[in-house]
Please model this.
Amino acid sequence: MPTVPKQSRRIEICGGIAAGKTSLARLLEASIADTDAIYE
Model:
């Protein structure tokens, strides 16, 4: 059974979190743009 180094797994997790944060930021920007369009 091969052992996976902890550091590489940590990098994968951090990459997943970073990807999640960027997609969340894009969703937030889109919703803010929508509300701006409504109030104009």
User: Anything to note?
Assistant: The chain has a mean pLDDT of 77. Residues 31 and 37 are 10 Å apart (CA to CA). The first helix runs from residue 6 to 39.
